[in-house]
Amino acid sequence: MTRTERTVIRGGLVITAADEVHADVLIEGSRIAALAAHGSGAAAGWTADRTIDATGKYVIPGGVDAHTHMEMPFGGTFASDTFATGTRAAAWGGTTTVIDFALQSVGHSLREGLDAWHAKADGQCAVDYGFHMILADVNEHTLKEMDLLVEEGCTSFKLFMAYPGVFYSDDGKILRAMQRASGNGGLIMMHAENGIAIDVLVEQALAAGQTDPRYHGEVRRALLEAEATHRAIQLARVAEAPLYVVHVSAAEAVTELAHARDLGLDVFGETCPQYLFLSTDDLAKPDFEGAKYVCSTPLRPVEHQAALWRALRTDDLSVVSTDHCPFCFNGQKELGRGDFSRIPNGLPGVENRMDLLHQAVVEGKLSRRRWIELACATPARMFGLYPRKGTLSPGADADVVVYDPHAEQVISAETHHMNVDYSAYEGKRVTGRVETVLSRGELVIDARTYVGRAGHGQYQPRGLCQYLTGH
């Protein structure tokens, strides 16, 4: 029997969604064994193979990014981050678990899609990972498969009200999938935009010679996000199913979510850093630079940001994920020169989320505990990973970040670790930086040096959503 390695993190301020406490953390093997007050008899008695000095720093749970797309096929190309590069970049940004999206293709089974994504990720990941399942083809066979996937720990299913001819499901298919989820305990995730109407506006814009990236934002109207959000909520009510709306970007959509939550419905909203920090001003940058900022839902006029921040404080938005789906400007985003509808949709961000949200703490928009709640605890609870992930408590996985709240950095493609040739936040100054990262007790980032390895990250089967009131 090999002796379990013991690590002690001393001198830091431990921050979880529930508490802030000056405590030392004892890790035995892959799990957190104990927390004890600095200088207490208990902490003083701990012996360790490795001691990490966190004096003047925060000790926080590793981030849980519940929305990434590594190696995602889109518009004739693929997202530029592999599971190897994407999870390494996640670790650099203090994220120790990603939940990616396995993709079912029309005419194929869910199992084929899930197996294909397992093959991409297996042995490649620097940190732990799970999968949601994208349903592109709702039929009797795939509805039955949903039950099997839930039993196996793939407990969430994404549907699209957008992208006709690719991922789109009509209201009847959405209702059937929601009814199935209502029975098997799965959580339906919704891309809520009225894609049928958007496609009409795209066609009209291109016919009028409006081809620049900024028109991507103009045709994908905020009202069509709000309308689809409203419709998704009503369908979920009819099916008596919970609903998680992804990448909420518009004030009008937030209003729909807030109303549903005021009614006590199991409806949850997610937003992303790009909607909190970027706007249509970026989409309108000259010389096709705006293409770097094309994602769906699109960036909105800057006045929408206040509503999103407010909703994060009131919990009408409960999670901040990245929707990390990077495409290089050169050779990928450029596919849409002369036709904005051909620009691959997606932004890089898996490495920036924790730092950008800490910047919001610095600026007084969020409390420290709310930062951890939005980025770690709530996504872990929402997707059945808590308390193994998302908190620092005895028995939890030792996914731990030592975070320097005073270090200043400038976000740049020159220094980031994502496999993409630009940064959406190029030149932005932020205060706060990841210093050391452990995943299940193993060092991945050691004092700003990468010491991790592909294949350390393990697949995480997930339980059911832990927020459901009706169960």
Bin the strand percentage: 15-25%
Spatial separation of the terminal alpha carbons: 43 Å
Please, what is the oligomeric state? single chain
Roughly how much helix do the residues carry, as a percent range? 25-40%
Biggest sheet, open or closed, and with what strands and sense? 10 strands, mixed
Radius of gyration: 21 Å
Silhouette: globular
Task: Enumerate the spans where pLDDT stays under 50 for 5 or more consecutive residues.
Answer: none
**Count, helices:** 14
**Extended strand count:** 20
What structural class results from the helix and strand content?
alpha/beta
Q: What number is the mean pLDDT?
A: 97
What does this structure look like?
- The structure is a single chain.
- This protein is α/β, with parallel strands linked by helices and 471 residues long.
- The protein is built from 14 helices and 20 strands.
- The strands form 3 sheets. Strands 1, 2, 3, 4, 5, 6, 17, 18, 19 and 20 form a 10-stranded mixed beta sheet that branches.
- A hairpin with a 2-residue loop joins strand 8 (73-74) and strand 9.
- Helix 4 packs parallel to helix 5 (171-184), helix 5 packs across helix 8 (222-239) and helix 8 runs parallel beside helix 9 (251-262).
- The protein is globular and about 70 Å long.
- The protein starts with 5 loop residues before the first strand and ends in a 21-residue tail after the last strand.
